[in-house]
Amino acid sequence: MRVSLLRAVTKSIYTSTLLWVFVLLFATASVGQESSPANLSNSATVNQRVEELLKKMTLEEKIGQLNQVSAANFLNPPNREELIEKGQIGSFLWSVDPVQLDKYQHLAVEKSRLHIPLLFGYDVIHGFRTVFPVPIAMAASWDPQVLEKAQSFAAREARASGINWTFGPMVDIARDARWGRIVEGAGEDPYLGSAMARAQVRGFQGPQLGTPDHVLATVKHFAGYGAAEGGRDYDSVYLPETSLRNVYLQPFRAAVDAGVGSLMSAYMDLNDVPAGGNHWLLHDVLRTEWGFQGFVVTDALTTNDLIIHGFAKDETDAAYRAVSAGVNVDMASRILAGQLAGLVKNGKITVAQIDDAVRPVLAVKIRMGLFEHPYTDLSKIGSVLSDPAAREHSRIAAQRSMVLLRNENHTLPLSKKVSSIALIGPLANDGIDLDGGWGVDGETPAVTVEAGLRNKLPGVTITSARGGEIRRTIPSRFDDFLPGGKKTPPQTAEEISKEIEEAVSLAKKSEVSVLVLGETANMSGEYASRSTLELPGRQQELLEKIAAVGKPVALVIVSGRPLNISWASAHIPAIVMAWQPGSEAGNAIADILFGDANPGGKLPVSWPRSAGQEPLYYSHNVTQYPESDPTYRSRYWEGPSTPLYPFGFGLSYTTFSISDLRLSKTELKAGDSLEATATVTNTGGIAGDEVVQLYIHQRAGSTSRPIRELKGFERVSLQLGETKTVHFTLGKKELTYWSEARKSWVEEPEEFDVWIGNCSTAALHAAFRVLE
Ligand code: NOJ
Questions:
Q1: CA distance 656 to 374
Q2: pLDDT, tens digit, for every residue of 138-148?
Q3: The pTM is what?
Q4: Is the CB of 440 under 6 A from ligand 1?
Q5: Ligand 1: which of 93, 119, 167 to mutate, most ligand atoms within 8 Å of CB?
């Protein structure tokens, strides 16, 4: 009863949705819709090969292509090898054992009736053997090229090990630092997020699917996962269409346009319809509007979650709803494998529907060249995984992603002539935590900060003290198989106090203290949400006691999210946000602290003063009492409602001036574009990088528009005294938005503000008008 009612309601929603989808398609077809040569359109030859295969396939073999099973020691069917030979498995996940993968591929290609190769998926999120900075850190580089190159190294290492499919990039917009998975994406902004999404698709897949030494990419989690209520992982998401289309869907669209071959549906309910059974998302938007030709894979066990959510009544219903919504591959639940034949037999699902589900899976395998080159040359693993070029790039990426948040009286860079350093904090000596989450068996533990300082300053006295351990209050359910979990009994309060006192006495004896504080790897990521953003454990006490010693102090924060550093921002002269920097962490941190690299990263998120401000983002609408008016700066009676550090903010060891904002015209017809330029000059003492950012605001329209929206950026390297002109284009793509009032994409004849600067609070201003 409940299910049929739901179906009726859902059907009517889809019917009306479809109507406006068509209106939209024909009225505003090209809006925001860049087409790229990499766009995943299957050639006639690919389609022909798919059809030839389909003709030969039995129903069981077709269903097998939709079945992805675990190759790890959990959730796996016992008779995997037999199922491979029968063609009843299309892909595996969760194994990094090259010998096992190679064996399975040989079975599939040589023993199965139609010789269809397997896909082997894994979460290669920010590196494989070589670990690169976590994704939010890479976004803080504001340097898509450096990210693209990192992901191509990751792809090469994974592919050499037999993995041909990664579950990345994760492009979920996250505007709430309590949500643990903020670490996996590019932060709060759709424009920056889209640039990072495109870069990662290119990095993983190469210019096109099938490029040697690359892998199939998966854009995830479709869609809205980052807006979990209260920042609680997996919680329901309620997003109006305006937020979905203008913000949350943008990076997915960018990835689809860049040719991503697969897309993962999200776990949670989106507006009461689970994303893994959401026909509007997976069919209407993804297929009809965007023309996506890759395949949709569910998140792990998501088909079963349709039952847990109270959406599907049982496994048969879950399979029916998943396939009807547009799912192709069922990750790990094996529900499609168990239920589809019955659904076809009783006429609820047609063979034509099964064929539609299988087509993109086969097409991707063909396009990847797997039929011609299914195997991995295992003799190459050693050389690929030890290529020093990957480590070098990891160090560069880590340097470029760090953000200098505070630097009073030029505390940094520290002098290499320093006689002694007290290195303090629970994260100073932990390679696993400096790597960040999503560790892979066999990844290299990061160079610790202590090792990095010793490498740089062999003659300097460096003493270190942990100052008390930190650990999650409630362990992660992933602690057993992901890095970061601690098995030993927790320290007692006395033991921690003793370690804090040891740290204080080291600080007293040393010329300078370097504090490395923050979060362990398992404190962010999946199942790692927080209700506060305080420094975990007794790190705040440690920080205050070290500051009270009265010697120079530099604070390095290692974490996957912004934390409450309001006290530090007023009392500690130098603060560097290092994120979780990866394999070369310690070396890169030492490079920044001692000036061998000049920080140029910028925040990809608004840094909150406390958890109570979340969700927090710069691109909100202008309100009745604008915060730009000093009288109204505090919506909270305890303090400001503005961020501690704004989106786009980051300091350097040099200074820059940005001036001379010019527009090529101040009036333009809808559909035309103008050029905005500004000059940026390095006015400080050394070479450095500035990220020049362009923001716009539409002053009136069919709906209220955000106070500012990022619409261009460029990271520029400048020698001392050097000047460059930065060019941005503003046209239909940048000026169009989804109007909730008009239910369509619109470019409206209105006045616009433009700002160019080095942060979302940029003051350099101009204005233009779009004519009727
Ligand atoms: C669950 C996570 O949500 C997803 O991001 C990941 O790719 C899959 N598990 C596979 O490990």
A1: 52
A2: 999 999 999 99
A3: 0.94
A4: no
A5: 167
